[in-house]
Amino acid sequence: MKRKVLLCVLTVLVLFCSTQPAAALLSNERGTVIEGDARLPIIRVVVPTRAEVLINPYQMPVEIDGETRREQILCTPAVIASTSDIPLKVSITITGAVKEESDMTLATAPTGGAGTSKSAFVYFEIVQSNSDDVISSLWAKAYDPAKHIPVVPGTPQTRTDIMTLPPMTKDNEVARGGYAQFRLTGDAVWNPTTEWNRKDGINVIVAFTFTPVPYT
User: Domain of 134?
Assistant: First the structure.
C-alpha cells in the first residue's frame, strides 16, 4: 500500500511542476488601450448676410444711419467679428455683375467723374478695428491697388491673407483688432452720353475664407 501512495504523490508533483511555468507566464501579461482625439479649433465669426450699395453719380444727399452723405458710391455699414479660439487669416473673393436691365459698365480704374461712357468704378475695402461701430476715419482717402479689391464683372477677384484676426479674450469676448469693417466705394462718371436711370445698378457677392493660424 505504501508503494502505491508514493507513486500517486510523485505523479502529482510532476504534473504541478510541468504546468507552473505556463501559469506564471500568463499572470505577467499586461495590456494598455490608448485612445486618441483631435483637438480642433472653434472658428466662430459673425458675418453680415446682406449690405446695400447705392450708385449716386450726381452726389445727391443720402441719409444712412442718421448721417447725410454725398459720395458717388455709398454702402451701408458692415462689420465682421471673431470670437474664435485661435487666430484666423482672412481671405476675400469679390464677384460682381451689372444688373441685367442696366446698360452701365464697371470701370477697371478710377474715373475721376470724367468721361462720356456711363460707367462706375467700384472697389472693396476692409480695415481692422477695435469696435463694432463703423469708424469712417479708418477708411483710406484714395484707391490703393495694393490694399483694395476692384469689382470686375464676371471675373472673381481674390486676395489671400489680407489680415489676421486675433482669438477671443479669456472672458470670451472679441479681442482688440478682432473686428473688421468693410464697404464698397469708388466713383462714377458724372455726365455720360447716356444718362443714368433707375435701372442701373450692380450685384456683388463678398465671400470670406477664415484659415486657422497655428500657435508658435
Answer: 45-212
**153-209 tens-digit pLDDT:** 989 999 999 999 999 999 999 999 999 999 999 999 999 999 999 999 999 999 999
Q: How far apart are CA 214 and CA 136, in angstroms?
A: 33
Sequence-distant (≥ 6) Cβ neighbours of residue 154 within 8 angstroms: 97
pLDDT, the chain, mean: 88
Cell triple for 27? 499572470
In a domain, 90, yes or no: yes
Tell whether 18 is covered by a domain.
no
Averaged over 69-83, what is the pLDDT?
95
Phi and psi at 27, nearest 5°, equal -70, -20
- For 54, how many CA atoms within 13 A lie in the half-sphere containing its CB? 15
Place of cell 442701373: 200
Number of neighbouring beta carbons within 10 Å of residue 88: 23
Q: What is the CA radius of gyration of the chain?
A: 35
**pLDDT value for 24:** 52
CA–CA gap between residue 97 and residue 113 (Å, rounded)? 21
